[in-house]
Amino acid sequence: MLSSMLKHHQEEMKGRNETQEKLKKEAVQAANELTQNLVEHLNINVATAYLNQKRLDAEAKNLNVAANNFAKQTQQWLALIDNFSSALKELGDVENWSKTIEKDMNSITAALEIAYKIERE
């Protein structure tokens, strides 16, 4: 009787151990699948962030090139405006010079006319 109880108990324990081992394997497999799914989900987000970062870097480079080109063009415009301003100043100087010459010539002409009139009389 005792030996039969012992055998019965050992068979029950063996069945429980097999059941526990089976459940343990299922739990490990489920944990692995969960981990794999979580990693895949995170990898998708990381990949998206990486692609967005690459696009931002490319756009930043393009913006930098455009800004440099704009700065060069602005420098050229400033040089043209400076040249134009200098030319206008020179024209103003020429105009002033010509007005001074004209005024002097008018004075000389008036003096010559007066001298001519005096000489004729």
From TrEMBL:
InterPro entries, alphabetized: BLOC1S1
Pfam families, sorted: GCN5L1
Coiled-coil residue windows: none
GO BP annotation list: endosomal transport
Annotated Gene Ontology cellular component terms: BLOC-1 complex
Amino acid composition bias (Basic and acidic residues), ranges on this chain: 8-27
Region entry Disordered, spans: 1-27
UniProt-listed PANTHER family: BIOGENESIS OF LYSOSOME-RELATED ORGANELLES COMPLEX 1 SUBUNIT 1 (PTHR13073:SF0), BLOC-1 COMPLEX SUBUNIT 1 (PTHR13073)
Protein family per UniProt: Belongs to the BLOC1S1 family.
Protein name (Swiss-Prot/TrEMBL): Biogenesis of lysosome-related organelles complex 1 subunit 1
Organism in which the protein naturally occurs: Polypedilum vanderplanki
